[in-house]
């Protein structure tokens, strides 16, 4: 793989060396500005997507959230039910005002949108040579055959496949095929690139090389892009901004750094390696179905919020040998007979009792899925030593605690 790795380094340089091509590809001063409303069977997606020239947006979310549907709507593969798509100031889909004051619908077909779509499957034409596959991208934009072939050769060189143009796609590895797909997309001079899990079928090494190759191209050519991925590395390496999609709507968005440091939704928290407990903030603490959470930095807000912490910071002990989770805090309400008529005791903050619902491996230890209340889960992780001491088993009851210094409280998304 060393040759390919070297080639991708050379590629980044070759892209930096062609500022004219870059200027012609960037989506003008406007980038993408889209308002999408789409129905697919019983599923509905509503989202606003803006991507500035030179910006990469990562769309993340659980399976079936509607990420691919949003990309398909932008690419013109699925019609909008309402809204509009503008790219570089051009209207690709929506309504155009008429001179009589009314408006008419406009919907450009995919090949006239100047939008490149890269998917998990490179989707090359098996009967065409590698060079012809790439030249096809330019030919589709009306470039004459000779120029298209010259441009294809240059782009194949840029993606580290100079000299491979005469072969057929079947003779290439998965990573090489994806490089050809990138070259073909660039040959069409896209004003927007849509990347739908383009590395998902590649091994870790090939994915890393192609990710770096794409990152270099996107930076050098300032092509706005949207990448859909389940892999947080794609967001970190490629994207400056993240939007979290759930059930067809964007539930959280922000800079990649901001979302990964302080996620506000369970999905973003899971990819950022946090446990997120939703609740309601009052008096500086967060009340949740799993109990009260307090931080050394009290919540400076009231209303819906989240408690965030790293699962490895949770201390987990066998509930049988521990004081009950509902033990009153110091200075709290009385115990015993008096307590029977008293209101429910105030639960100590950062302390919850749970049943182990499931176990799965975690780096250096084990992850515990902990069922706290009907439908509420608050996970924890044990390193190998703590796991050996506790010997966790599904169904066992445990008592969990966490230091306020390890807890952050934030307002909920939206
Ligand atoms: N061709 C189709 N016809 C009808 N419904 C569809 C079609 N494609 C997708 N859907 C529905 O649209 C919803 C969103 O699917 P979509 O593929 O956009 O989600 P996704 O977030 O990309 O999921 P994944 O991460 O699993 O790829 C799903 O409920 C799915 O069943």
From TrEMBL:
The keyword Nucleotide-binding is assigned to this record: yes
SUPFAM superfamilies with a match to the protein in the record: MOP-like, P-loop containing nucleoside triphosphate hydrolases
InterPro entries: AAA+_ATPase, ABC_SmlMolc_Importer, ABC_transporter-like_ATP-bd, ABC_transporter-like_CS, Mo/tungstate-bd_C_term_dom, P-loop_NTPase, Transp-assoc_OB_typ1
Domain of life: Bacteria
Ranges where the ABC transporter domain occurs: 29-272
One Gene Ontology term of the molecular function aspect: ATP hydrolysis activity
Family matches, as Gene3D superfamilies: 2.40.50.100, P-loop containing nucleotide triphosphate hydrolases (3.40.50.300)
Keywords from the named record: ATP-binding, Nucleotide-binding, Transport
Pfam family name, one: ABC_tran
Biased composition (Low complexity): 1-12
UniProt region (Disordered), positions on chain: 1-29, 325-345
Name of the protein described by the UniProt record: ATP-binding cassette domain-containing protein
Taxonomic source organism: Agromyces archimandritae
């Amino acid at each position: 793989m060393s040759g390919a790795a070297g080639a991708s380094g050379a590629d980044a340089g070759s892209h930096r060396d062609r500022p004219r091509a870059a200027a012609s590809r960037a989506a003008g001063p406007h980038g993408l500005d889209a308002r999408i409303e789409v129905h697919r069977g019983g599923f509905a997606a509503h989202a606003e997507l803006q991507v500035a020239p030179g910006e990469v947006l990562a769309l993340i979310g659980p399976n079936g959230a509607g990420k691919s549907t949003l990309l398909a709507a932008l690419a013109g593969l699925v019609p909008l039910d309402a809204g509009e798509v503008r790219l570089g100031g051009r209207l690709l889909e929506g309504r155009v005002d008429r001179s009589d004051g009314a408006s008419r619908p406009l919907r450009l077909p995919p090949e006239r949108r100047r939008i490149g779509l890269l998917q998990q499957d490179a989707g090359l034409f098996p009967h065409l040579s590698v060079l012809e596959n790439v030249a096809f991208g330019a030919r589709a934009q009306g470039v004459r055959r000779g120029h298209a072939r010259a441009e294809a050769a240059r782009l194949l060189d840029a993606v580290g496949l100079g000299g491979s143009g005469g072969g057929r796609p079947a003779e290439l590895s998965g990573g090489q095929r994806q490089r050809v797909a990138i070259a073909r997309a660039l040959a069409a001079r896209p004003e927007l690139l849509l990347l739908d899990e383009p590395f998902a079928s590649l091994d870790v090494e090939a994915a890393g090389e192609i990710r770096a190759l794409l990152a270099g191209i996107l930076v050098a050519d300032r092509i706005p892009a949207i990448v859909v991925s389940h892999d947080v590395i794609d967001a970190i390496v490629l994207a400056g901004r993240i939007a979290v999609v759930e059930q067809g709507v964007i539930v959280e968005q922000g800079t990649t750094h901001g979302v990964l440091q302080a996620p506000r939704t369970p999905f973003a928290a899971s990819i950022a390696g946090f446990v997120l407990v939703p609740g309601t903030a009052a008096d500086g603490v967060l009340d949740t179905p799993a109990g009260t959470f307090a931080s050394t930095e009290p919540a400076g807000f009231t209303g819906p919020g989240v408690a965030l912490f790293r699962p490895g910071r949770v201390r987990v002990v066998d509930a049988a040998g521990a004081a009950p989770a509902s033990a009153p805090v110091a200075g709290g309400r009385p115990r015993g007979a008096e307590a029977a008529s008293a209101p429910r005791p105030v639960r100590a903050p950062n302390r919850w009792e749970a049943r182990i619902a499931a176990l799965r491996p975690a780096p250096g230890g084990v992850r515990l899925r902990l069922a706290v209340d009907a439908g509420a889960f608050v996970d924890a992780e044990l390193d190998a030593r703590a796991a050996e001491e506790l010997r966790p088993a599904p169904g066992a009851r445990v008592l969990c605690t966490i230091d306020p210094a390890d807890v952050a409280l934030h307002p909920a998304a939206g």
